[in-house]
Amino acid sequence: xxxxxxIVAGLLIGSVYALFSSGLTLxxxxxxxxxxxxxxxxxxxxxxxxxxxTLLNFGVASFGLAxxxxxxxxxxxxxxxxxxxxxxxxxxxxxLSTFGLVLxxxxxxxxxxxxxxxxxxxxxxxxxxxxxxxxxxxxxxxxGVAALVxxxxxxxxxTRTMLGxxxxxxxxxxxxxxxxxxxxxxxxxxxxGLSGASAGIAGALIATFFPISATVGESLxxxxxVVVTFGGFGSVPGAMVAGLIIGLIESLSAFYFGPIxxxxxxxxxxxxxxxxxxxxxxxxx
Amino acid sequence: MKITRRILNxxxxxxxxxIGVSTVHAADDVKIGVLFPLSGNSANAGKSAVAAxxxxxxxxxxxxxxxxxxxxxxxKGLLNLGGAKIKLVIAxxxxxxxxxxxxxxxxxxxxxxxxxxxxxxSAVALTATAIAERYxxxxxxxxxxxxxxxxxxxxxTFRTTPIASDFANxxxxxxxxxxxxxxxxxxxxxxxxxxxxxxxxSSTIRxxxxxxxxxxxxxxxxxxxxxxVSAQVLQLKDKKPDAIIFISYTSDAILYMKTLKSLDYMxxxxxxxxxxxxxxxxxxxxxxxxxxAMNRSAWSTGPKDxxxxxxxELFKAKTGQDMDDTSGRDMQAFxxxxxxxxxxxxxxxxxxxxxxKQTDLKPExxxxxxxxxxxxxxxxxxxxxxxxxxxxxxRYYAVxxxxxxxxxxxxxxxxxx
Lengths: 285, 417
Known about the structure:
The structure holds two protein chains of two kinds. Chain A is mainly alpha-helical. Chain A has eleven helices and two strands, in the order H-H-H-H-E-E-H-H-H-H-H-H-H. A two-stranded antiparallel sheet of chain A has the order 1-2. The mean pLDDT of chain A is 90. Chain B is α/β, with parallel strands linked by helices. The radius of gyration of chain B is 24 Å and the shape is globular. Chain B has two domains: 30-161 and 303-384, Rossmann fold; 165-297 and 388-404, Response regulator (Rossmann fold). At the A-B interface, helix 1, helix 9 and helix 10 of A face strand 7, helix 7, helix 8 and helix 10 of B.
């Protein structure tokens, strides 16, 4: 029984990992731009949810939406004000520019929101669900469902719609896409906006169970990178599977060997997978 | 020209006389260095400590009713030095050990302070006391708990605060009482974050618990930045300890309380070792889930019109917040130094050092809940102690030992029920 509960807890936190990694897959896996500031986007989503709830009395659904919209706008702005320009420079400039963005966002948040932890009321999404003796934490369950919906939605968007094809076309060959009459800037900006929006939703949902602070992006960002690499660049379903596997391994290893050793198991598997299959679990060759 | 020169001469003479007169009549101010982090991550804590020390200096320098039980509480300055006033020289070490060393050097060599109080972070106390040792200036550590601050055999370092072993003894004493009262209290769990703070405090608690004959059935180190603590909570739920001692920072402490609820596990006794459990953000975020959680503190506001209550009123008027344990411990350290300077009747370092060694303050002369202040050969206060406090509603109340209790102790942990 305990084992089942440990597995369930792992899958739940894994689905949260999948949720905040999905946006990173889009820009890193498809646009080939490393956005180190992804964790910071999630952090801002958490703050948007917090302020929308405490100042404007928004409910869960509407503060999630507010976070999605504001972060979509932020993503688009980041593309036009920063990424578009550094894309013309060397690879190193791209990497360091988003790293600079991390520091700007993190310390602006410190400045604006202070260094104290804040949080949403613990019971905002209701109590844990009891399914045959197994407890499912409500916020994580909602996060899991949202992760699934966003993953499927993004997958369908990319594979079944004209917009998705255009985004992929730009990712594959910018010049060829331009010759086909696609406006690459617009597609890239939409991709960044979608990435920001999913980070916003993730942040809003994580804020329902995790304390909010300016430095929270640090730990979340790292996990997102591992999930995307593990799942395979450019594969949205891959990120979902990788998130679940990582959550599961963390939970089992923390339970049986102790929480400080969980990273050993996660990263050992990570290295092993990349050694055997460098493109990740579901990445394209 | 001549006239103006004469006027100048006369006025210079008057000035010189005036200065001369003033030095003859009023005793020189005694300068005390106050070394805390006033910028950087711990600026909040440092500023509160400085505010508390400023209040203490004001109590000593200016008469105000109600503080007579404190040494020098009459407000007439340092009596044995002709009523000399204390002047604070405040320095910011930014939480940085090398800056702590530099500021300590400046306080001693340029400001020529008689003694120093500091320094919040143990790491800074370690470097700053080394400078005081080299120059032979007394340094009172009000709050740093790292064992090696007083384990280096320094002659000029004195520490008033209780340290990890004092807290561990307090916890074990209470668990022992529970056992006597017939409650299950033989298996405990220690859950600690795996950096300096958690590992050092947990190792002290572990050895004292073993000496007290308790079984440690779960010994869980974890990373305070982790995103999830479900596995740890399930492990605890599986082993069912009679008491859990958490040595945690803020976000992890919050996460533990939320996860206890979401996994429906109510341990009979939860003890949080200060830090995360004392953070106002913790209380605000999860007090409805953590009713009856125990914590430690040497500060208690006490009944209306008591000395501590008055100090709290002054502190509230100055900072807008209630007095906290850390600032209180620093304030106490300052009172101890001022008392020693007064008893020495001199600002000579050797005389103050000798007076500090002879310090023997009784509980009623203190504003903190220590059993007294008396230093051993290493400079550690052997009478340092703390209260157990318990979360009831949205604040902590002193509950143990009984004579200091503001509210009766509630057992078991009530959590969210």
